[in-house]
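[audit] Reproducing an earlier prediction to check determinism. Same input, same settings, fresh worker. If the tokens differ from the archived copy the diff job will pick it up downstream; this log only records the rerun itself.
[audit] input (285 residues):
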Amino acid sequence: MNPSPYTPRPTEETPVASPHTLQARGLELGYGERRIVSGLDVDVPPGAITVVVGPNACGKSTLLRSMARLLTPADGAVLLDGREVHKMATKDVAAVLGVLPQTPVAPESITVADLVGRGRYPHQGWFRRWTAADDAAVATALHATDVLDLADRPIDELSGGQRQRVWIAMALAQETDVLLLDEPTTYLDISHQLDVLDLLTDLNRERGVTLVVVLHDLNLACRYADHLIAMKDGRVVAEGAPSAIVTESLVDEVFGLRSTVVPDPVSGTPLIVPMGRHHSGSVTP
């Protein structure tokens, strides 16, 4: 497989996503005897950007892993278009739902282009060979994530930030209608964090892709989310539009953090200004 030349696909050929329902019902999740999530119900709005936030070890990544079929529930079910994902064929799920886990592992010495090309797996079949459409999808993903010039480099040689963008490119190349991303801005500087979140927003606005993203940065979550889910101790504390649910009391309840919430001067969304022991909120002119 040699996906070249790397020419991005024209905009008018970009496939439009179909709406899909993704739900969790009565989820019981954990590792061994340790329960992390219990009796959880979640509805992901089709065609929207849903961001999951919460403190460390609250169950965010565990929930996403279950939705991605990487973790089998002890009880309850994840439903994709009304069907239990854990009872569906892997390829059937992968044709609709793409995932970028928190710590993906690449085969040793694989090049960037070949790794991104693996995102085309759900589109292959016994008699389906690599085509120009696959070349175009890979090229578009490489270009969109600004790793086109790294296409022939082994991924082992890249920095953490470059690798993260390559993994995102692989998820984009899959061209699924639903995309789950666990901390996609990890290892990225603030400029590339915004680039990635803008890219995901473009994907949602232009193709209608349903996105579920776990983020640590609450302010970026408020800026980019259509639907925000705030979790603590394996349960949903609040969910809805950021402007409707993010208050100082919610931030205190979920994160144990005293703060002031003001309008973001750029986006108008809630902006959390944290306080600490040395800054009580009193400003001296």
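[audit] rerun output stored. Observation attached for the diff report: The radius of gyration is 20 Å.
[audit] end
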